Amino acid sequence: MKFFVTGGAGFIGSNFIFYMEKKHPEYEIICLDKLTYAGNLATLAPVMEKQNFKFVRVDIADREAVSSIFEVEKPDVVVNFAAESHVDRSIEDPGVFLQTNVIGTQVLLDACRKYGIRRYHQVSTDEVYGDLPLDRPDLFFTEQTPLHTSSPYSASKASADLLCNAYHRTYGLPITISRCSNNYGPYQFPEKLIPLMIANALADKPLPVYGQGLNVRDWLYVEDHCAAIDLILEQEEIGQVYNIGGHNEMRNIDIVKLICKALDKPEGLITYVTDRKGHDMRYAIDPTFIHEKLGWLPETKFEDGIQKTIQWYLDHRDWWEEIVSGAYQTYYERMYGNR
Ligand code: NAD
Ligand code: DAU
């Protein structure tokens, strides 16, 4: 079985490659990645020399390049992680989000149609459902919840989902879609809440909490997400959407305080800054369907996962310090300078 894993030099894609290498050493994996600011080849060092692994630098929105790789390699399965993934960046500059997340997905779907595929899996997000109010803890996102996006990022991800459904219905393409909640764990780029707060706290820098920090996210350890995708790929039914989440809702401010405590840093570092435009209030996944259909349940409790994650950032300073010392500085100044 030959897999294309797009976006495999990023956070979840690399964790997925490691997971699959361990679980299915008989599979051949080819990572396709453009290596944007969020992609890091050093992350893939543990698999780079393996016989059954190959890395190809390519933009998924480059039709010609994608077509030639499909022609040569003829993959059985495509798992599409490649995306512009940061909401704040999409608010600054939506264009590249449409290019990669929508056009890139279409290019991949067209190649799958042309060369044939056993499965195309789209890695989507719970953000396609919009948000839930804080005063209705009884409400959750199910697979039937209407798409109702807030940011240019989520709009681009929802558009990609709609394209996948259209290619399934119109051309019979064997697609599946998963919509996961917020992931955390090793190799997450330090622009996202948890690694940014860990990096800043370790440097005794202010911890920028948007608004009042009351927004709620539903956190899942990245390996549990990878396990869910593996199960989805193993079952035969196509055209199906799966929500992935572990009922682990937390307010941002509580996460930041927990990180301060774990690193023995004062809460005085917390700085309330101007809120994100259109900031989604609460995400909460109902994972009943994937649990009942595929038997999936998250294995890592948040208390353990967050300690493991903090320890990973302490043990891998070289990985993230290089990132935060480079071009990222300019980004940080632009996004947080006058907030
Ligand atoms: P990430 O930003 O860490 O990594 C994205 C990867 O895609 C990078 O390696 C980047 O180089 C690559 N990439 C970007 N544009 C590309 C292009 N045009 N062609 C080829 N490669 C390109 O993202 P992530 O957090 O690992 O997210 C992976 C996927 O999972 C995304 O589709 C995202 O929408 C989805 N998702 C993320 C989360 C989360 O909490 N991080 C939750 C649910 C779903
Ligand atoms: O829900 C899944 C989504 O989770 C994925 O689809 C996205 O790719 C991923 O980036 C993530 O989106 P969020 O916007 O929820 O993640 P982020 O880490 O950017 O922010 C989490 C919360 O923390 C959010 O309410 C905004 C807040 N925040 C974030 C940053 C970076 C802060 O308060 N301060 C910050 O500096």
Report, as a whole number of angstroms, the end-to-end distance: 49 Å
Indicate the overall shape.
Answer: globular
Order of helices and strands: EHEHEHEHHEHEEHEEEHEEHEHHHH
- Average pLDDT figure: 97
User: What is the beta-strand fraction?
Assistant: 15-25%
Give the strand line-up of the largest sheet: 3-2-1-4-5-6-11
Uncertain residue ranges: none
Query: What Rg is obtained from the alpha carbons, in whole angstroms?
Result: 19 Å
Q: Number of DSSP strands?
A: 13
Q: Any overview of this molecule?
A:
This protein has 339 residues and is an alpha/beta fold. It is built from 13 helices and 13 strands. The protein has helices at 11-23, 45-48, 63-73, 87-92, 95-115, 152-171, 193-202, 222-234, 252-263, 288-294, 302-315, 317-325, 328-336; strands spanning 2-6, 28-33, 53-57, 77-80, 119-125, 175-180, 183-184, 207-210, 216-218, 220-221, 241-244, 249-251, 270-273. Strand 2, helix 2 and strand 3 (53-57) form a beta-alpha-beta unit. The structure holds nicotinamide-adenine-dinucleotide and 2'deoxy-thymidine-5'-diphospho-alpha-D-glucose.
What is shown here, in short?
This protein has 339 residues and is α/β, with parallel strands linked by helices. It has helices at residues 11-23, 45-48, 63-73, 87-92, 95-115, 152-171, 193-202, 222-234, 252-263, 288-294, 302-315, 317-325, 328-336; strands at 2-6, 28-33, 53-57, 77-80, 119-125, 175-180, 183-184, 207-210, 216-218, 220-221, 241-244, 249-251, 270-273.
